[in-house]
Amino acid sequence: MAPQQQFHVLAVDDSIIDRKLIERLLKTSSYQVTVVDSGSKALEFLGLNEDEQMDQDVSSVLPSDHQQDLEVNLIITDYWMPGMTGYELLRKIKQSKSLKDIPVVIMSSENVPSRINRCLKEGAEEFFLKPVQMSDVNKLKPHLLRGRAMEDEPIINKIEATLEVI
Amino acid sequence: MEINQTRRQIAGMRQSLFDQGLVDEQFVQLEELQDDANPNFVEEVATLYYRDSSRLIQNLDQALEKSPLDFNKLDNYMHQLKGSSSSIGAKKVKAECTHFKEYCRTANREGCMRSFQQLKKEYVLLKKKLEAYFQMARQAGPSNAACRPK
User: Fold this and answer.
1) Residue in chain B lying closest to A130 (CA)
2) Any CB–CB contact under 8 A between A17 and chain B?
3) Percent of chain B that is helix, strand, coil (3-state, to 5)
4) Least CA distance to B24: which residue of chain A?
């Protein structure tokens, strides 16, 4: 049986120090990591053109064997970034058919309850206060596992369906 | 043995960073991310910090020469500096960033000027101490890279 693929986390932060830090934290947890410095680069990586309301058909943009490499299991983003904020990025992801089920986590250096609530309401799974620590990154696992379980669900349903026939 | 003396020196230098309030718990967090595969992580982050923040300090210097002051812009720069100072565990620098931001909020020009002078002092002091610390740690060899004593 093929070993299960590593989880792939996309990290978004405009600060070069914070990018280095989050990358190290995530790699220490054995996640595959891609780091970008802006919301628009994140959307580009995810295959979503930020100007479009409807998703692009990803397969028309990338050869199909690249899709597997680019599958993102979780997005962790800074809140305050020039251009697109983490909140705006979160909204675009949740509005996207193809991306809405990817768990999103927000990081912020400021403890602003109204901000935290707004992000959680918009669908963020967690809100981490910076500087992000190992104990925060440890909280990501359940969200990643749940995502994978949801992916496996259609297969399990199929198996169950065949069992009933027997 | 010479190596033990060096190790004691390194430990001493490390302890004084904490005792003098120059670094906080976040510095320890960075140390804990060091391992055999990433033996120089703390130094790498520190180097990145000084390169990135020198740009911000320059921007702040220039912005503080303007008249009238653009407090929004100053606050923006300082927010970035505070963030990265916090990420590296630069305790005193971070505290001074907070003071500066408060002076921005109250549009206090004098306060900003004074605070920035103090900030630069702290910034330079920390840089010197960290450089000396990392250099000493490197001298002791890769297995003694600056890290938390076990």
Assistant:
1) B87
2) yes
3) 80, 0, 20
4) A131
Residue whose structure tokens are 């020198």? B54
Specify burial of residue A76 (Cβ count, 10 A radius: 0-12, 13-18, 19+): buried
| For helices A16-28 and B41-65, angle between their N-to-C axes, nearest 10 degrees | 160
pTM above 0.95, yes or no: no
Nearest to A24 by CA among B90, B145, B33: B33
The shortest CB-CB distance from B87 to any of A21, A80, A134 is to A21
Query: Is B27's pLDDT higher than 80?
Result: yes
pLDDT of residue A147: 81
Please tell me which of the candidates B30, B32, B87 has its beta carbon nearest to residue A130: B87
Q: To the nearest whole number, what is the mean pLDDT of chain A?
A: 86
Write out the residues of chain B at the interface with chain A, using a CB-CB cutoff of 8 A.
Answer: 26, 29-30, 32-33, 38, 41, 44-45, 48-49, 52, 79-80, 82-84, 86-89
Strands of the sheet containing A32-36, edge to edge, are: A32-36, A8-12, A74-78, A104-108, A126-129
Mean pLDDT over A148-164 rounds to 78
pLDDT of amino acid B148: 56
Query: Which token pair is A27?
Result: 């790699």
Residues of chain A in contact with residue B26, where contact means CB-CB under 8 angstroms, are 131, 133
Contact at CB, B32 and A134, closer than 8 angstroms: yes
Contacting residues of B for A19, CB less than 8 Å apart:
none
Q: Do A15 and B38 make contact, defined as CB atoms within 8 angstroms?
A: no
- Report which of A41, A92, A112, A136 is spatially closest to residue B29, judged by C-alpha positions: A136
Q: How confident is the model at residue B150 (pLDDT cuts 50, 70, 90)?
A: low
pLDDT at res. A60: 44
